[in-house]
Specification:
Helix content: over 70%
Structural class: mainly alpha
Order of helices and strands: HHHHHHHHHHHHHHH
């Protein structure tokens, strides 16, 4: 593996951390800003919706630029916006700043994935993409828990300064070590049928929607299901990262083997098991004698493993089928964002109307529905591609 792929991992680590950096302090932030927890959760909705809408536009507008330059632009924009979020005077301003921060992530994420595929040999592209996606893993293991700990000591505003520092570190690394990476040649050989790729986007959408329904509201779920609050939530957030490490390792190897429908359905089955455990824990209906903290942590681990075992498979398949077109990867990022927006909105509605136990119930319903749909529409694996361009 080209060691410069690790630099691209820092990029997704920075933006992955920034996306969820305040999740562990969500209830504290809501009280300070004078809004409900469900309303505060829409800071994430604004982030992902902007990313979804403007990501493909940015990919199209910047598609012929060097991938390194696109990553630099995204990191620089994010750095400035995170600093501004730390000093925002009210919820409305913070909502606007978070929306623009979503654009910064949408600029760099697809560019980093395409760059990783360009730096890796064909037989290792799945692993390279998994390594870049591993930045999200590191975010849940290190970045987001760090934000929760720092925020519990210095206040929720300091979490955004942590996000700014991580963006600055990634920016320096990209400037120092990443080579110029020209954009991939334009795809030739006719028009790609949308029917061939829409099930890939649907898989991405449903996977992230089910997970975000729970992940954004992890603090109240852990409080009710495991009796843990404050900085202790960070330990449970770290389980997302541990599960992601396992999932990305499995998913990268699976992508190298060009796996198909059975792998995806297995992932949704694991998600459903995890959400069922959360549902039982928040209803205090776990089997007697079993430690609730351990079971809640296991459920978080399993959901993350399922999510990140699917992600490299989908991204690698898209690169195979679209010749690494930046817009195709940006659309996948948009679908992730829309899925996250649906999940965060659905979780907020469930919380506001039915209480904490309704959150995993909604996620479970989504996982089961997704598995049923994809059992019929997910495409067979195509022959492996030897080139990106």
């Amino acid at each position: 593996m080209n060691p410069r792929v690790f630099v691209l991992t820092l990029v997704t680590f920075a933006f992955g951390s920034a996306a969820f950096i305040f999740a562990g302090l969500l209830e504290t932030m809501a009280r300070d800003l004078g809004v409900s927890t469900a309303v505060a959760g829409q800071l994430q909705t604004a982030y992902v919706l902007t990313s979804a809408v403007l990501g493909p536009v940015a990919a199209w507008a910047l598609g012929r630029l060097d991938r390194k330059l696109v990553v630099i632009l995204g990191l620089s924009l994010g750095l400035g916006l995170h600093i501004a979020c730390a000093s925002t005077p009210n919820f409305q301003t913070l909502l606007v700043l978070r929306a623009f921060a979503g654009l910064a992530g949408a600029m760099s994420g697809p560019a980093a994935s395409v760059a990783a595929a360009s730096l890796a040999p064909p037989e290792k592209r799945g692993s390279a993409i998994a390594m870049v996606a591993g930045g999200m893993t590191l975010a849940f293991v290190l970045g987001i828990p760090l934000g929760s700990v720092v925020g519990s000591i210095f206040g929720w505003r300091s979490t955004f300064l942590v996000a700014a520092a991580l963006s600055a570190i990634a920016l320096v690394a990209v400037l120092a070590f990443l080579p110029r990476i020209p954009p991939a040649p334009r795809r030739t050989g006719g028009i790609l049928e949308i029917s061939a790729i829409w099930p890939l986007y649907m898989t991405t959408f449903l996977t992230f929607a089910a997970n975000m329904t729970v992940n954004l509201y992890i603090a109240p779920i852990v409080r009710v299901g495991a009796g843990v609050t404050g900085a202790g939530v960070g330990a449970f957030q770290a389980m997302i990262g541990v599960g992601s490490i396992v999932g990305l390792w499995l998913g990268g190897r699976a992508a190298n083997r060009n796996v198909g429908r059975a792998w995806i359905l297995q992932g949704f089955a694991i998600q459903a098991i995890a959400m069922s455990t959360h549902f039982a824990a928040t209803h205090h209906a776990l089997p007697p004698g079993l430690p609730s903290k351990a079971l809640v942590a296991l459920a978080i681990f399993l959901a993350a493993t399922a999510l990140f075992s699917i992600t490299p498979v989908i991204q690698t398949r898209l690169i195979q089928m679209t010749a690494g077109a930046p817009v195709a990867l940006a659309l996948n990022g948009s679908v992730i964002s829309v899925g996250q927006a649906l999940g965060s909105t659905l979780g907020g509605v469930a919380l506001a109307n039915f209480g904490v136990p309704a959150i995993p119930a909604a996620a479970l319903a989504m996982s089961l529905t997704a598995g049923l749909i994809l059992a019929f529409v997910f495409p067979r694996a195509p022959p492996p591609s030897e080139t990106i361009g």
